[in-house]
Amino acid sequence: MRQDLSCFLTGGPLALRCLVIESITYLPKLRKLFPQAKLTAITRYSEIPALPEFSDLAIDWQVFDYRQKKLPFADAAFDMIIAESALEYAYDPYNTFMDFSRKLTDVGTLYTSFINIRYHEILQGLKIGEFPIREQHLYAKKEVVKLLDDTLFKEIYFVPGEQDDNSGTAKYWEELGFANISQDLATAVWLVKASRSTAGVANLKGLYTPALRKELACILHRIEYDIDTAKNLARLKELCEANGIFYEYIADFVKEACFHKEQTLAKLKTILVL
Prior knowledge:
By secondary structure, the protein is an alpha/beta fold. Helix content is 38%, strand content 19%.
């Protein structure tokens, strides 16, 4: 079985700001999936931007080696970064992925991939003293989780990019005691989706303006700690009615923002209908 990072992408009309790092084969797919997106592409090969297959895709090109310097963009400049194999080729993976993280919005998403060092064919080579891979970093999933967690990503998903169709190929290593969760030993390449926020927080931030969310947080904290409770309950009800804010949204907001969740929700039920 073989698939690429586009398996994570559903497409849509949003004018997303998308950065593609050396993964130029994705550019036609991205333009088709996201016709309104602003596409920015980085490559270290100066001849690539002139290739005819990219001429009508409206791409902002940057000839730049991401492995040697920080990305030449402001923080929070992108909603999405596609950097296939960047884990493998980065000279300093921690600093590179911290830079990626900072260039994403606080609800942005990184898509990348890596060669799995626990793949049974690599293990077989090591068994007989062979390891022909010289220029790339190889990883186990656990180490990738740690790296992405250290670089401020909150939710991390893996799907197989290349996996043996015959699940029995890794049986020998399982019998030796190697764990094989999700057919890890039969997976040559893992695809990764890493989000800067949890899904719940991303949904909260996506529905209303930052100014409105800031006011909601202030009111809810005042209610939580019994500061002018009646006045703030009235203000909250007014705000909800004026902006079409529904109870479920407020309940989720409380669960993410308040320490005394149940007590705060109990106070809100006096003014908001379940």
